[in-house]
Every structure is written in C-alpha cells, then in structure tokens.
Amino acid sequence: MNVVKPIVEELNLLDEQRKEQETKISQLNAEIAGYSEARERELPLVQEVESKVKELREMIAVFNGNQMSLRTSIRNLKEKNGQMDEKISKAEFDLVQSVQENANIRSKIVQSPDKIQVHISSY
After folding, report:
1. pTM score, whole prediction
2. By the 8 A CB rule, do 118 and 109 touch?
3. 119, 113 in Cβ contact below 8 A?
4. Which of 13, 35, 52, 93 would you label with 68, given CA atoms 20 to 30 Å apart?
5. Are the C-beta atoms of residues 58 and 50 closer than 8 Å to each other?
6. What CA–CA distance (Å, rounded) separates 35 from 42?
7. What is the C-alpha separation between 123 and 107, in angstroms, rounded?
8. Side-chain half-sphere of 48: how many Cα atoms within 13 Å?
9. What are the sequence ranges of the domains in the chain?
C-alpha cells in the first residue's frame, strides 16, 4: 500500500495539472474565437481601407506624372523666356541704332528755308 500511495498521489497531481491545462486551453480557445470574430467583423473595414490606400496610391502616381509634366512645361517656358529676353535685347539694341541713324539723318537735313535757298543757288 505504501508503494501504491505515492503513485496514486502522483496520478492525482497529474490529473489536477491536466484539468488546469484543459481549463487554460479552453480559455485560450475562447480568446482565439473572440479574436476570430473580431477579425471577421473588422474585415470589411480593412478591405475598405486597403481599397482607399490603393486609390490614393493611384492618385499619387497621377499627381507625380502631372508634376513631371509641369516641370517640363516650366523648363520649356524658361527656355522661351530666355529666347524672348534675347529678342528683346536685340530689339532694344536695334532701336538704339535706329535712333542714332535717325539723329544722323536729321542732322544732315537743313533746318531753315534760307539754308535751302543757299544750297539750291549754289547749284
């Protein structure tokens, strides 16, 4: 009997540990079930957010394309601006030359009718 008593006590201890483990497993299974239910409830929201994220990424791609297009347009406009500046500078230079030529021609024109008579009579 003394030999059986320690074995029975050990079996009782093992049985208590088994019951504790089964209780723990039941609790963990209940938690898992709760998480699974929460996941199922939140799945539509997650899908909606993922859809919005995809939409936003597509919008970003479009905006990036637009930005590149605008940068190209700005570069082209800057080039045209430089060309226009060159044309304006040339036109201003030509205008100054024309004004000087005009002044030279005017200085050659006789200013008074008496001088005209003098010039005509000398011929």
Report:
1. 0.53
2. no
3. no
4. 52
5. no
6. 10
7. 21
8. 5
9. 4-121
Residue in the block written with tokens 């990424």: 57
Supply 59's token pair.
């919008």
Radius of gyration of the chain (CA): 50
Q: What are 95's two structure tokens?
A: 């205008």
Ordered per-residue pLDDT tens for the chain, 123 residues? 778 888 889 899 999 999 999 999 999 999 999 999 999 999 999 999 999 999 999 999 999 999 999 999 999 999 999 999 999 999 999 999 999 999 888 887 756 656 556 555 555
Distances (CA, A) of 18 to 6, 21, 32, 111: 18, 5, 20, 130
DSSP, res 110: -
